[in-house]
């Protein structure tokens, strides 16, 4: 039984541990690994671009088998959260390494706010970029 528990835990990494390694809040990791969609005006049309990895879906408890899982921790010092496979951890860390300013913008957007108060839009997420639409397209293509 102990071997099963050890194998179960070795295959996945807590979102809090990934966040600590990346020096960001756990919520940033959870937003990035979920569905983070932003409306972007393209000429006369309004398109919705995906910047989240879609490994999870917070409201529905959606998870990808072998990639992510909801983990109710029974340790009173740790809150419930998502766990990710080692492969997912590599993707998450590569995303942050490729687009650190975008990750900082996500963190700034959620800082000191309730989930219902968070707004992701072009100005909030790409205000740092002189060519914000091009930056958004570049990141959306990397995610896809």
Question: Summarize this, please?
Answer:
With 144 residues, this protein is of the alpha+beta class.
Keywords for this structure?
single chain, 144 residues, alpha+beta, two-stranded antiparallel sheet, 7 helices, 7 strands
Give an account of the 3D structure:
It contains 7 helices and 7 strands; from the N terminus they run H-E-H-H-E-E-E-E-E-E-H-H-H-H. With 144 residues, it is an alpha+beta fold. The protein is globular and about 50 Å long. The strands form 3 sheets. The protein has a 3-stranded antiparallel sheet. Strands 2-3 form a two-stranded antiparallel sheet. A two-stranded antiparallel ribbon has the order 4-5. The protein has one domain. Helix 2 (15-22) crosses helix 3 (26-33). The model has no long low-confidence stretch (mean pLDDT 85).
């Amino acid at each position: 039984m102990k071997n099963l528990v050890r194998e179960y835990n070795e295959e996945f990494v807590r979102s809090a541990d990934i966040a600590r390694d990346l020096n960001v809040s756990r919520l940033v990791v959870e937003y990035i690994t979920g569905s983070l969609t932003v409306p972007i005006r393209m000429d006369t049309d309004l398109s919705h671009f995906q910047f989240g990895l879609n490994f999870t879906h917070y409201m529905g408890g959606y998870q990808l088998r072998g990639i992510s899982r909801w983990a109710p921790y029974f340790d009173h010092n740790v809150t419930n959260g998502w766990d990710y496979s080692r492969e997912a951890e590599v993707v998450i860390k590569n995303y942050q390494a490729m687009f650190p300013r975008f990750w900082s913008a996500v963190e700034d957007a959620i800082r000191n706010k309730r989930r219902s108060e968070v707004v992701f839009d072009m100005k909030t997420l790409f205000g740092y970029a002189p060519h914000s639409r091009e930056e958004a397209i570049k990141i959306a293509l990397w995610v896809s």
